[in-house]
Amino acid sequence: MIKPPSEFEAQFIAARWTGDSRGFSPSLNHHHVGWDILDSFNDIHIHSESSSGLECAAGDIHFQLVQSPCACVERWQSILHTEFIGVAFTHKQYCVLWVATDGAVFTSNDITDVFGFVGSDIMVAIRNELIGIRSQPLMNDDESALNYYGDAYNRGDSRLFDWHLYASQNRR
Questions:
Q1: Of the four listed, 20, 37, 57, 102, which is most buried by Cβ atoms within 10 Å?
Q2: 105, 152, 8, 129: which is closest to 57 by C-alpha?
Q3: For residue 1, is it within any domain?
């Protein structure tokens, strides 16, 4: 079983997390960390202590299986050479956390087509969501600029996630 980050454990317990299996039945791909996350946290809904975050609005996380990735997620799944499992809705259901095969966590949203990197694993992603750390957008090779929540990004911007390196490490 996966435990939540210690600084947020009281919030998880208040949301009915017990540390036991949530009875989540995995699909045929038993070896994807996304299934372990869902078995540990399925149907747990936690909220940040404040809506003000360090870099952006702090959000809530509602762990549940997210079905049917959108075209944006499917495109990045292919580019990054990984498989995503949707494990949670965030920010009052308009964003989704997607866990890659290696455990890295990404996000999509209902506002833009921009895909973002949230953290290297679910612990980092939980912290970043609950304390309001901005995700790093991914810029496709055919784009020269993008706008993400009011911020302009141009090719080479250090705030962008280096997906080329990530994808090269995932090639099979």
A1: 37
A2: 129
A3: no
How many distinct structural domains can be found in the chain? 1
pLDDT of the residue at 141: 93
pLDDT band at 26 (very low <50, low <70, confident <90, very high): low
123 lies in a domain?
yes
Query: Of 91, 94, 82, 84, which Cα lies nearest the Cα of 170?
Result: 82
- pTM summary value: 0.92
The residue among 167, 142, 139, 165 whose CA lies nearest residue 151 is 139
Query: Packing angle between helix 163-170 and helix 71-79, nearest 10 degrees?
Result: 70
Instruction: Give me the residue label for tokens 């609950």.
Output: 130
Domain that holds residue 149: 6-170
- Is 33 inside a domain boundary? yes
Average pLDDT of the residues of the chain: 90
pLDDT digits (tens, 9 = 90+) for 35-66: 999 999 999 999 988 778 888 888 899 999 99
Contact status, residue 117 vs residue 104, Cβ threshold 8 Å: yes
Contacts of 123 (CB under 8 A, 6+ apart): 4, 5
